[in-house]
Amino acid sequence: MSLITLYLPKMGESVVEAIVLHWCVKEEEVVMEGAPLLEVATDKVDAEIPAIYTGKIKKLLVNKGEVVAIGAPIALLEAENEVSPSTAHEQSFVDPKPTVAAITPSPNRGGDFPTYSQVKLTPVAKHMAHKHLIPSDVLTRLAGDTRDNRVTKSVIADYLSKHLPTHTTEHHLFHETVTPLEGDEVFQMDRVRKLIADRMVASKKIAPHVTSFIRADVTELVAWKNQHKTVFEEKHGIKLSYNSIFMAMIARALQHFPLLNAVMVDDQIIKRKHINIGFAVALPNGNVLVPVVHQVEQLGLVPLARQIDALVQQARNGTIMPDALTGASYTISNIGCFDNLMGTPIIVQPQVAILALGLIEKRPAVVHVEGKATIAIRDELFLSHTYDHRIIDGAIGGGFLKYLAKACASFVENIKQYPCT
Fold first, then answer.
1. Domains and CATH numbers, the chain
2. Are 314 and 291 in contact (CB under 8 A)?
3. How far apart are the C-alpha atoms of 248 and 246, rounded to whole Å?
4. What does pTM read for this prediction?
5. Has residue 390 got a pLDDT over 90?
């Protein structure tokens, strides 16, 4: 027998802490290797942590609802077989972090702002920095102004007192007291919905949103998909979806408008080398996750379709990992699956644009045949493009839509740009 310490395992480069949702075991209970140990929630997704050894749980070191740093000790386990501490760490766990968190650089996270560099933060300060979306360069400056190069709760509180907008009396006049009436149902937002709400409000405060619309003729695209979907599924074992086709086209368009494939932190604009596209997935409980396909510009239609299909399944069955939800440089939302024609999507910070795909439907349209205008039935959809007006003007935001609409209209001519193998 050997007594070993279990630590909260690494769950992706961008995840620095998690909340304990539920312990699947009790003290003095035997747990089998691979069996669920506890459930945790990160700022992206809930995850189940398995036991890496068979043994008896001697002590739980963290409680339900507690925020735990990645690498922090969570339990003591009496293993059946002799296990060396180094072996235990190598298998699945990382060394515990010090009380003051040193947050290292990580890939920028779609829907998660900011990305921290080498800054020492106390746990409370770190939580406040995440909550109020304080950029990494600001934290670095705050740390440099302290005696021990460490950011504490009081330092963050002082910064917020000077930079958060004040609420005037007039502002509060618009908020009347609401009392539930007989028969009303009152319930609390769940954790994920609260995160979504906070980020949407923050994005509207950070970026002046402008939305442009265009109607795109997708007759050729629809005909091509219908012609190839059966053979595609038989050959590759996955469905040929509009998501994969449009994502390939959008990646091509972003190569012509690289400023849209950027993130913005304060007055710094970072144009991404690779095109990493997030796409919204509606969950059965009404919430939304945004998985990310990385380096889309390097993918053919088949691997792109495979990745999208896998990510959708993982998102909906609750097995998606935090890293699969990070690193987006641009986002799309297919609102057409809800029969919506157009919309005004909210930018996912710190990205600078987001595109909504509307419902594809047949409409009468003016077309030119041998130089003569005539009315014909065409497959069309509306594209809604929202962009950050701090750095994106109509020439780029609207020009991108024009380029994409033309690419849709001449899809067959340009299909070689989106290889099927």
1. 2-91 (2.40.50.100), 102-163 (no CATH), 192-417 (3.30.559.10)
2. yes
3. 5
4. 0.69
5. yes
